Each structure stands twice: as C-alpha cells, then as structure tokens.
Amino acid sequence: MKRAPLLAAAIGVGTLATPPAHGADAKSDCIAAADQGQSLRDDGKYRGARDAFTSCARDVCPRLVQRSCIEWLGQLEDAMPTVVLGAKDESGSDLARAHVTVDGEPLTEVLDGKPLPLDPGQHVLSFERGGSGAASTRVVLRAGEKNRAVTVTLRTSPDAAIASPSPSAEPAPDQTPHASFFTAGHVTALSLLVAGGAAIGVGAYFLGQAGGDADTASGIRGTIPPDACTRDASSAPCQSLSAAVDAHYRDETLAAVMLVGGGVLVVGAAVAWLAWPKAADERPATGVRWVAPGVAQGGPSLIVGGAF
Fold this sequence. Notes:
The chain is an alpha+beta fold. Helices cover 50% and strands 19% of the residues. A hairpin with a 2-residue loop joins strand 2 and strand 3.
C-alpha cells in the first residue's frame, strides 16, 4: 500500500466535495488523520493506523478523504495479524481471565477465544493472574496472518503457597495414619489374629491327618478276621491297626485343640482391636509385640515376644 498525495488533493477539492457546515477544523483534522494513518501503516504500526483511518473515514470528512480512508481501512484489516490468546492451569483446565500485556503494554483481561489484532513483527506476550507466576512467550507475526493461537500454562507461584499455608494444627495426611497405626492395641490384635489363623491352619492339617489314620485303620480291619487281635494282639497286622487307631485319636485331639484355640485367638483379636484402651496422646509402640503358636512338653502353646 503506497502512500497517496491525499493532503494536496483534499485541499484542491475540499471546497467542492465537503459542505461548508463541516468547517475548516474538521477538514484539517481529517486530512491530518489520513496522513498519520498512512505513516503509521508504512511503519508497521497497524493498530495505530487503523484508529487514524477510522477517524478520517467519518461522514464529517471531505468525500475524497473519506473514500480513501475507507479503502485503506479495508486493506489494513486484511493485512493486520490477529492472535487468539489462551491460558491453562496446572491441571490443564482453560482459564477465562488473565492479565495479558504485549511488549509491556496492557492488552486484555479476558480470554474469551476471540481474535485480537496486533502489529506485524516481533512481540512479547506476558500472562499473569493472582496466585500464579507470570508466563511469557515471544511471537513473530506476519502481515495477513490470522488467528495465531498463543497458549501458555500458568503454574502456582511459590510465593502464593507461602502466603496461604495450610493450617499448622492439621498434620500432613501421610503422617497421622502411620504414626497412630502401630499402637499396642493394634499390634496385639494383629498378633492374635495371625496366631489364631495359624492355629486354625494347623488344626485343619491334623484333622486331615486324623481322617487318613481312620482310613488306614479301616483298611487294616478289612484284611484280618474280626477276632484276630483278640487271639493274638502281638501279630504284625494287629500292631499296625493299634498304631493307626492311636494316631487317629492323637491327631483328632490335636485338631480339636488347635481349632478351638485358633477360634479363641481370633475372637481375642477382635476384642483387642475394638476394646483396647486408647490414650489421648497415644504414640506408636516402642517395640514389636508378637504372638506365635509353639509346642511345649504339655502340648500346643503360644509364644509371646517383643519389647514390653
């Protein structure tokens, strides 16, 4: 777009083209705006040129000036670059508002997805909002480039986090459960539960063994006469039958003891978990307490250990 010798032409025809009611001042202002708009346009300052051409395209301006300014304004609108600004928070959600500057000058406060005109050339766009650090980006816009998308991410500012700390009376979420879980009551309840489960498992094993012993005894009885052991208890089949019967009763007794003891321990675990006294400032147990099944001379037993 070349600059036209508008000033001289307007002066030459202004008297014929413009009604006297417009006045000399209005005509001079229009001509000055047209000249200023051409200068700004040629310098790449399209936004300023658009304002000037809009001013000299008014009805109060001389006809020749008005027609020229309208034509230049249309050409300028086609050549003016536009940007579509956007900003997201740390989670990726779109933000509707942010303070945006271009080359240090305010541009907008609203991010509504509408195109904004800028001059061609290099620019620095800066985004900022309360509670977030500023984010800047550099762009080079070309004449005629439309709807250039410019999007930044605004992250939480460390200063904002310091200014709004979480209440100090509330412990961190990942500290309270770990600090209060291993109390004496909880450790005892879990120990009893483990011991009870182990005892029930051992009882089930002996119960299976007792069933096997019974099958063995039945098998031996089927191979000898009913009164064979009455007549000769020292025979090999009778000795085997006696051993199978003894093993059956022994294993059956052990199974009953372990199953009943395991049930008692499980019930004790539930009681300890629910009814163990809790101090107001109860702290984690300083030692590990545990209960495990064992075998003593008198039969099955429980072994308790740990720091008390």
